[in-house]
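mind reviewing these tokens:
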Amino acid sequence: MIDTVLHTGSEHPDLLWILVPAFLSFVAGLGVITYADRVRDWITPTESTTSE
């Protein structure tokens, strides 16, 4: 039971191939969240620019 708790997966042969895409996905998500309002404004015009 203690071996299961202490196992972190650091001995996995493809650990680098798992961590790098996970980290890049995390950074990309932060970028999307940071610029979401700018992208949303770019895609849909604001109400003040539409003619009534």
Notes: The first helix runs from residue 2 to 6. Helices lie at 2-6, 15-34, 36-43. The chain has one domain: 1-43. The chain has a mean pLDDT of 77.
